[in-house]
Structure formats: structure tokens, C-alpha cells
Amino acid sequence: MPIIRASYAVAFAVALGLAAPAMAEDVINFGVQPSTQPILIAHGAGYLKPIEEKYKIKINLRSFSYGAPENQALAAGELQIASAGMGPAILAAARLPATLVAIDILDQTAILVPKDSKITTVAQLKGAKIAFPGEGSQQYPLLIKALADAKLDVKDVELFKTDGSQVATLLANKSVDAGITWDPHVSRALADDVGRVLANSAQIMPIKNGHYVGDGTYVRDDFMKARPDIVQELITVQVKAIDLILSDPDKAIDIWTKENGFPRCH
């Protein structure tokens, strides 16, 4: 079974205001990643359809491999709203004309090593070749934090940039000594019996009640000003999705596997 951890949701209400109705051809581009994001549950559960019908819009989920290119698309106006790890989400809110409107707590990132690796502690990663998704991902600062806690510097390891989905393959081929990625890629490595968890995000950076604050949803300021009603609806369905995760995890797993193309293990 894929690892799914959803503990809490914190949504910041967006004040409703007057706005002109959206035209039938309006498309709302929502940036996502192949992960355990609540917006994917909302999509798979059919929660977005009533919003589309109510406002005569099309909500298009655009997938990105990690946060940096997602933020570039938001900055270019190609996205109106996005969900990404807290690292890129905070960077977007600080550096782009965007506002962080919601967070969720998902312990979905982990440092993995091959199943038969002799490495049992982060300190033993000195000199290791570590796969990671890039400096613009939230996995990068988590890796830096884990290394620092073990009295290591990033210069003490060899970083190998790759797509998060490739970590399991790299571990299986022994092409790297370790890798940091997120679900469903963590679960794929465990399900394929090619890796084991060395440290997870909750252990590396327990921010909220022993959990890591995993994902943030952020919105371009011009879109939020123009359509606060739609923004509020999109936040509300994510809270509804998290309620589904907590109340019916088996159904949530089924939806996630379908949305991410990840085979469910029984």
C-alpha cells in the first residue's frame, strides 16, 4: 500500500468580493505535481466539476516535476494558482506577485537508500552520491537540514540532479548511494522492494505537532483580486479532500493511484 500521511489542514479563508462572472472560455490553470496533493483528490473525487459548472470555467491541472519550473510558469502568468512543497511555495510568496493561501501537513518526503545498503544514519552519507530533484525543490533544504544535523555540509556529498520519479530506479541500479524524493515515488521504491527510508520529513523538520508542513497553495495576486470567489472555492474543495483522506483513506488511495498512474499494492 502506498504511504499516505495526512494529519491536518490549515486553510486561510479568502475574503469574497464582487467580481465579473467568468466567460465560458475561461481556463484556470492550476499547477500540481505527481504527489499526494489534496487538489488531486479533489479532482479525482469530482469536487471540481461543480465549480466549473457554477462559474462556467475549465480548471486545468498542469503537472510539473518539481517546484522551480512550476514557479517559473506562475511568474510568467501561465498559472493562476499552484500547489507545491513549502519551500517553493514560500519562495513564490516572497519573490513573486503571489500569496500563500493554504497549507497542508503531509509527511511525504524521505531520504532513501538501497534496501541492502550498509548506511544506517545520515552521518554515514559523507562522500555519498545523492539523487535530488533540484535546488528549487523543497527536498533540497530538507536534505541540507538533515546533513547539517549530522554535522555534514552539502560539500561533503555528491549531488546528482534527477526527476523525483527516477529515484527508485537509481537505487535499484545502485547508480546512487541515496536519494531524496516524495510520495508516490517513496512508496514506489518501498513497494518495489528496492529502497528503505533513512529519514523522513517529520524526523528532519517536525514543525507542526511532530509533522512537517508539506505543501502550500499559492495564488497570483492579480487572479485573487479578480476572482476571490473562485480562489475560495478551490481552497474549500482541498479541505473537503483532506476530510476524505482522513475519513476514508482506502478511497483516497484509490483516487491517488489513478491520478498519479501509480499501481496500488495489496
Number of domains in the coordinates?
A: 2
Share of residues in helices: 25-40%
What share of residues are in beta strands? Answer: 15-25%
Q: By helix and strand content, what is the structural category? A: alpha/beta
Q: Compute the gyration radius: what is it?
A: 19 Å
Number of strands: 11
Spatial arrangement of strands, main beta sheet: 1-5-11-4-2-3
Shape label: globular
The name CATH uses for the topology of the largest domain is D-Maltodextrin-Binding Protein, domain 2
Low-pLDDT ranges:
1-25
Q: Sheet bearing the most strands, described?
A: 6 strands, mixed
At the first level of CATH, what is the class of the largest domain? Answer: Alpha Beta
| Average pLDDT metric | 86
In CATH terms, what is the architecture of the largest domain? Answer: 3-Layer(aba) Sandwich
* String of helices and strands: EEHHEHEHEEEHEHEHEHEHHH
State the separation between the terminal residues, measured CA to CA.
Answer: 6 Å
Query: Can you say what the CATH homologous superfamily of the largest domain is?
Result: Periplasmic binding protein-like II
Q: Main traits of this protein?
A:
266 residues, alpha/beta, D-Maltodextrin-Binding Protein, domain 2, 2 domains, 6-stranded mixed beta sheet, 5-stranded mixed beta sheet, 11 helices, 37% helix, 23% strand, globular
The gist of it:
This protein has helices spanning 38-44, 49-55, 67-75, 86-95, 139-149, 167-172, 185-191, 201-204, 221-226, 228-247, 249-260; strands at residues 8-11, 27-32, 58-63, 81-85, 98-105, 109-114, 129-132, 158-161, 178-182, 195-200, 215-220.
